């Protein structure tokens, strides 16, 4: 299908001081709804974080609207395309943090690590003195990461400070390089690490997605696929669609091998959530699956 016939998915974030963020919610929500936009935008005093989907014209109008605020004039975004919207409605939510570390005093608007371009990243992480850390959650790391990167084995970003306290020492680990999907977690992680006395802290500008977009596969130090928070589930080099699907019950990425497990039931459970699936949730998932199949059948008629 031609790109012009597809919906545009725009992901965006920016750490910027927004003391009036609560007053911004209603006009932002109203404007997005007027344009037929769906998705979620998080607003906090520390900035903005969101993913929205709509027509090319609608997305361009909303981005222009957001950037009309001088504080967001340089707001960057990334785009992908979809045939069907991955969101059912538009939400603008007020939060204490746009990415939850659990330490609101950590403020990337005050200090942040050194940005490293995708083109410079390989040289940095190939330095034997550099500790390379994947700041994403465990299930994301398991389907792909950079060579020699440490996996903190966190289930949420809130656990990252504990990992640092128990595994890293600013007097011993002089150079730290971090990365995440799009860059937002690393900005906050680098701010936290600077506050803990780490002197040289680096992070990948634009995240893994920008690296996979710009660095040729033959030069890449990336291994596996990159989990993304939309219907693509995972992407490869060049941001081509990956091989994973998403468990509709727990949201984990599942491989072709996972689907051969007796614990896998389409739309109901997978090997990662089978043991924790209650009977009530099983019934709810079965009903969701039934509705999904009915909707699909109507579309195909």
From TrEMBL:
Its EC number is 1.14.-.-. PROSITE patterns: RHODANESE_3. InterPro entries: Rhodanese-like_dom, Rhodanese-like_dom_sf, TrhO, TRHO_N. Residues 126-220 form the Rhodanese domain. Gene3D superfamilies: 3.30.70.100, Rhodanese-like domain. Keywords: Oxidoreductase, tRNA processing. It catalyses: uridine(34) in tRNA + AH2 + O2 = 5-hydroxyuridine(34) in tRNA + A + H2O. It comes from the Bacteria. PANTHER family: RHODANESE-LIKE DOMAIN-CONTAINING PROTEIN 7-RELATED, THIOSULFATE SULFURTRANSFERASE/RHODANESE-LIKE DOMAIN-CONTAINING PROTEIN 2. Catalyzes oxygen-dependent 5-hydroxyuridine (ho5U) modification at position 34 in tRNAs. Belongs to the TrhO family. This is tRNA uridine(34) hydroxylase. It comes from Calothrix parietina FACHB-288. The lineage of its organism: Bacteria, Bacillati, Cyanobacteriota, Cyanophyceae, Nostocales.
């Amino acid at each position: 299908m031609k790109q012009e016939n597809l919906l545009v998915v725009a992901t965006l974030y920016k750490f910027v001081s927004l003391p009036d963020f609560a007053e911004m919610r209603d006009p932002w929500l109203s404007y997005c709804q007027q344009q037929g936009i769906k998705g979620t935008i998080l607003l906090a005093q520390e900035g903005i974080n969101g993913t929205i989907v709509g027509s090319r014209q609608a997305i361009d109008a909303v981005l222009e609207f957001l950037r009309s605020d001088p504080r967001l004039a340089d707001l960057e975004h990334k785009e992908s395309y979809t045939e069907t919207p991955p969101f059912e409605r538009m939400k603008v939510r007020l939060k204490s943090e746009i990415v939850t570390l659990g330490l609101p005093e950590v403020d990337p608007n005050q200090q942040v690590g050194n940005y490293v371009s995708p083109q410079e990243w390989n040289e940095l992480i190939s330095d034997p003195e550099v500790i390379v850390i994947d700041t994403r959650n465990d299930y994301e790391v398991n389907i792909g990461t950079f060579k020699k990167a440490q996996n903190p084995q966190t289930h949420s970003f809130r656990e990252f400070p504990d990992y640092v306290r128990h595994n890293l020492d600013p007097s011993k680990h002089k150079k730290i390089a971090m990365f995440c999907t799009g860059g937002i977690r690393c900005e906050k992680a680098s701010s936290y690490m600077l506050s803990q006395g780490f002197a040289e802290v680096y992070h990948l500008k634009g995240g893994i997605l920008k690296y996979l977009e710009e660095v040729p596969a033959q030069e890449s130090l990336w291994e596996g696929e990159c989990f993304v928070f939309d219907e693509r589930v995972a992407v490869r080099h060049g941001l081509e669609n990956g091989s994973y699907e998403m468990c509709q019950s727990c949201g984990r990425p599942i491989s072709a091998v996972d689907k051969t497990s007796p614990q896998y039931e389409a739309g109901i459970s997978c090997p990662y959530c089978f043991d924790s699936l209650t009977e009530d949730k099983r019934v709810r998932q079965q009903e969701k699956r039934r509705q999904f199949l009915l909707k699909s059948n109507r579309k195909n008629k």
